[in-house]
Design a protein that fits this description.
The protein is of the alpha+beta class. The chain is built from 2 helices and 7 strands. Strands 4-1-6-5 form a 4-stranded mixed sheet, sandwiched between helices. The chain has a 3-stranded antiparallel sheet with strand order 3-2-7, with no helix packed on it. β5 and β6 form a beta hairpin.
Length: 135
């Protein structure tokens, strides 16, 4: 039986509209891949509540969670992940890499330059599609 985890990810934008990208550290699974910060939902916790908690723990800042971007189920060899991502904006504080190797702000047009964790790619694609419709 494959383990199943439910994870929420935040697409955090700064005042310029750039997106916060987080590099997974050597202590995490899939080190060296980029992801949208977030984490596993606790029992009886909504994805939005999870994101507020996880971003405070991982990055030391507060966010305001907006609309859902993607809801993806990805089958890794040993685990099945449901990743739900949400548009978010900084409410207070400055993100600091407490658990990640490093953080990087990039415009949506440059997100494909990074090597993303497989479950995060549908969110990258959705962001690029929505941005191409707005311009």
């Amino acid at each position: 039986m494959t383990e199943y985890i439910y994870v929420a990810g935040a697409v955090i934008r700064n005042h310029d509209g750039d997106v916060l990208c987080a590099l997974r550290s050597v202590t995490m699974s899939m080190p060296g891949l980029w992801e949208f910060p977030g984490g596993k939902l606790e029992p009886n916790e909504s994805a939005e509540e999870c994101l507020v908690r996880e971003i405070e723990e991982e990055l030391g800042c507060a966010i305001q969670v907006g609309r859902q971007i993607a809801d993806v189920i990805y089958e890794y060899p040993s685990i099945r992940v449901r990743l739900v991502t949400y548009e978010s904006k900084l409410a207070s504080g400055t993100p600091v890499a407490r658990e990640h190797e490093r953080l990087l702000w990039l415009p949506v047009s440059r997100l494909t330059e990074l090597e993303w964790a497989p479950a995060d790619w549908p969110t990258v694609d959705a962001l690029r599609r929505s941005e191409s419709h707005e311009s």
